[in-house]
TrEMBL record:
Protein name, UniProt field: Rve domain-containing protein
Domain of life: Eukaryota
UniProt organism field: Cephalotus follicularis (Albany pitcher plant)
Amino acid sequence: MIPVEIGVQSPRVVHFTEDNNEEGLRCILDLVEEPRDKAAIRVAAYQQRVSRYYNKRVSPRPLRQGDLVLRNSAVADPTGTRGKLAPALEGPYKIKRVLRPGTFKLETLGGREIARAWNAEHLRKYYQ
C-alpha cells in the first residue's frame, strides 16, 4: 500500500477479498500458455522475415569442380609478412573436388594439390 491509501481508502483496498484474489491468480495461471504460444509464433515469424531479408541480398557463388579460381592471399599467408602493395588475390587455381557445399580442395594448374581445404568465402571465380 502507498501512504495515501492509508488515510483515504481506494476502491482497490475497499473491495479486496482474499478469496477473489486467489481465484484471479488461478485464472491467470491457466491462461499463461496462450501468451507464451503467441510470443513463440511472433518470434518464429520475425526470424523468417530476417532470414528472407538476408537471403535476398546474399549472392550465391556457384563454384563447381574444374572451375578456375583466385584465392585470397591474406588468408593464404596468415603471418602477415606480405607488404601493403602485395596483390590481394593469387592464382589461378583449379577446383580439384568439392568436399561439401562451399568447401573446396584446390590444385595448381600444373596438377599439384594444395594442402588445405578452402571456403568459398575466400575464393573468387577466375574469368579468362
